[in-house]
Amino acid sequence: MSATEQRRIVPVVLCGGTGSRLWPLSREGFPKQFWPLLSERTMLQDTVSRAGGTGFTSPLVVCNQAHRFLVAEQLRAAGVSEPTIVLEPVARNSAPAIAAAALLAHEADPEAVLWLLAADHAIADVAALHAALEKAATAARAGRIVTFGMKPAAPETGYGYIEAGAPLEGVEGVSSIASFVEKPDLATARAYLEGGRHLWNSGMFVATAATLLAELERLAPGLLATVRAAVEGATRDLDFVRLDPPTFERAPDISIDYAVMEKTSHAAVVPADLGWSDVGSWAALWEVAAKDAAGNATHGPVELYRANNCYVRSEGVLTGVVGLDDAVVVVTDDAVLAMHRSCAQDVKKLLEQLKARGRKEATEHRRMYRPWGHYEGLIQGDRFQVKKISVKPGEKLSLQKHFHRAEHWVVVNGTAIVERDAERIMLRENESIYLPLGSVHRLENPGIIPLTLIEVQSGAYLGEDDIVRFEDTYGRT
Predict the structure, then answer these.
(1) Which of 192, 305, 338, 355 could covalently link to 198 via disulfide, CB atoms 3.0 to 4.6 Å apart?
(2) Are 275 and 259 in contact (CB under 8 A)?
(3) Residue 357: is it exposed, middle or buried by C-beta count within 10 angstroms (0-12/13-18/19+)?
(4) Is the dihedral of CA 211, 215, 218, 223 positive or negative?
(5) Any bridge partners for residue 426, and if so which?
């Protein structure tokens, strides 16, 4: 960033998406921004890495409260210090999330320049991104709300478009916006590509907190009043800002495009060529992924024979593909997706069918993440199930009891301290303990390596909602 800039830019990372078109990998319980899709880092970690260095403050991240510990852990692993993590009690689209971020940033500095970006997009050319951001920040300080328009590489029908207008006076590389255009049909998209005036709408914005709030007050006063009340009623614990649930739930479900950008006279655009993708489908992921000589992109234990232009991903099971062209095959431990690449946008419709039929695979993975670690189901039968539990060093589960099940724990790696009613017992590898129905118990990892144990549950009801918590380190009830 320019050495003459007086204030650092505040990255505001919107981390509330579900990535439904990337099912079965991306699900509501563990969406695409938390997966390493394009590098060894997750998409969230890649995103915050682009906003690191002296030109930026620590990020302000807005996420669903169910993902709070995932966000905190991934930011910690990425080396991000002192982030502000704002928790939405319910999803309400981008406008309420941005309003909350702008209100919080305004408390510290009304003229703070906010860079609003999604946690799950891909950008290949970071140097070009920072150059475009510098132009956008200059326009933002002059009172503009600036978006990034990506130069289209193909007649894409899955993106909204921006029609660029006349260049702004005194701000090099920034133009006014003639119009916003909804996702076009193929013929229209081809005309846009040939005409050269239309750009993909990236969903990234740059503006000062004061400008954003002024336009929200003018164009969406009810939304801003509701979110302001939710911020004023927020509570703070650990690293989190919890927006007041009853108030925030009343906020309208609307995007910043509809609430502000399509109505404001302050909109501007920076045309840019960043190697950008919203990675919104398996076809989009194939486009940006590294490929072999036959055009195939693979991940995990995959073997191909006479396959061309395919995307094949396995999360552990050996997957073979023979004689297919333009196919997508995705294998997880509990679901398989196979389709033609041209049908990538229809995954969302398949997911709606699964939800209508009550399939838990639509929203949950077999592995479930918790603030203390994770667990995954191994076997389930009539009145019993077997799970593998992993507890991070120094962490512990809640003090709890169950009304409908008993449990048997066997330690297979690490050391455990178990509270069982009035007892406190240390277990080492290959040692076990029985927890009768109704006993008050807690599991803790006092060691410096992960604790792994096998849990065998037995009883008339084995649902996760059969938990009565008496005490919890993480504030759960």
Answers:
(1) 192
(2) no
(3) exposed
(4) negative
(5) 417
Tokens of 335: 């679901």
φ, ψ (nearest 5 deg) of residue 180 = -105, 140
Shared domain check, 467 and 402: yes
Tens digit of each residue's pLDDT (9 = 90 or more) over 198-210:
999 999 999 999 9
| CA–CA dist 330, 23 (Å, integer) | 9
**Domain limits for position 17:** 10-277
Helix crossing, 94-108 with 221-232: angle to 10°? 60
Residues 173 and 80 in one domain: yes
Q: Is 324 in the same domain as 204?
A: no
Give me 190's structure tokens: 């081809």
The enclosing domain of 424 has a CATH number of 2.60.120.10
Distance CA 78, CA 455 (A): 32
Alpha-carbon distance of 305 to 133, in angstroms, equals: 44
Q: What is the CATH number of the domain that holds 59?
A: 3.90.550.10
CA distance 34 to 25: 10
Question: pLDDT tens, 228-245?
Answer: 999 999 999 877 999 999
Q: What is the pTM of this model?
A: 0.87
Query: In degrees, to the nearest 5, what angle opens at C-alpha 429 toward C-alphas 424 and 432?
Result: 55
Which runs of E-coded beta strand occur in 158-301? 161-167, 175-181, 198-208, 235-237, 240-242, 267-272, 276-277, 297-299
Q: Is residue 371 part of a domain?
A: yes
Neighbours of 321 (CB within 10 A): 18
Please report where in the chains the tokens 């914005």 appear, as a residue.
Answer: 205
Q: Which two tokens stand for residue 120?
A: 């799950």
Here the tokens at position 224 are: 């801003």
Do the domain assignments include residue 351?
yes
Beta strands at 240-242 and 84-88: parallel, antiparallel or unpaired: parallel
